[in-house]
Amino acid sequence: MIHFVGAGPGAEDLITVRGRRLLREADVIIYAGSLVNPGLLKEAGEACRIYNSAVMTLEEVIAVMKQAEAEGLKTVRLHTGDPCLYGAIREQMDILDRLGIPYESCPGVSSFCAAAAALNLEYTLPEVSQSVVITRMEGRTPVPEKERIASFASHGATMVLFLSTGLLKKLTDQLIAGGYRQDTPAAIVYKATWPEEETHICTVGTLEETAKAYGITKTALIIVGEVVLHQNYERSKLYDPSFTTEYRTAEHPWKQQEAGDGKD
Ligand code: SAH
Fold first, then answer.
1. Which of 209, 205, 208, 203 is nearest to 223 (CA)?
2. CATH class of the region 112-229
3. Does the record's keyword annotation contain Ribosomal protein (predicted)?
């Protein structure tokens, strides 16, 4: 069995309890060495075989999995953050399907959640934004034409940009072309939850100079939108004393305006 496991954003204690158990039980670990905290490998047993996929091709990764499976061993494929975002897991799964090798996934804390935590942000503030667009600038991996930054920017929703730190001038141009102002709040979060974490609040117009000033060229997320400064939002209906929910009756039910929103 192959277990795709989310390692979390960096800090060793931000892997899930299940993920840590799988690491402890693994006979073989293949970890994404460019971003996974190597400290997590301390969880591995003495006899565990450990491979760094940063220096391997897809074919080499699969060959290791195939060999382990032939020996009846348990393999953990350790990906940074949550494997479902920019994890290149599906291509591995499709080959495993063809080979008849079973696999399952264990989620992890994505870096976009860690970046919010680093800034104490709520991405979905009432009356500011109720959506989060997770995307990236086009790099060597193309982004479909319909998913241009400018078209997402036109919604004015919160945006979190992965894999884009080296392209900030272009990013600013595209955000502004889409309708964000130069002074729309933005943030750069470098290595969220690692000891060397840095957070910098800036604006859409100053993203490039801010990254340059602090020497940030990779392993960062860009957050764009009014939620970064969290002004002018409405308080939640869920905790409003005049609002009845599934779990709580309003203090003054006669004041209740409308029912329905928010059960989480
Ligand atoms: N699956 C991962 C993302 C992998 S893509 C996740 O869920 O987080 C790699 C990109 O993620 C990096 O280029 C960077 O943009 C972002 N990233 C990963 N870890 C990060 C961290 N600790 N802090 C800030 N950005 C991070």
1. 203
2. alpha beta
3. no
Q: Which two tokens stand for residue 212?
A: 């340059």
Residue 100 alpha carbon to ligand 1 centre in Å:
31
| Cα 79 to averaged position of ligand 1 atoms, centre (Å) | 10
Tell me the two tokens of residue 152.
């997402």
How many Å lie between the centroid of ligand 1 and the Cα of residue 65?
25
Listed in order, the ranges of the chain carrying CATH 3.30.950.10 are 112-229
The span from the CA of 88 to the CA of 9, in Å, is 16
pLDDT in tens, 143-186: 898 899 999 999 999 999 999 999 999 999 999 999 999 999 99
What is the number of other CB atoms lying within 10 angstroms of the CB of residue 55?
Answer: 9
Closest C-alpha to ligand 1, atom 25: 220
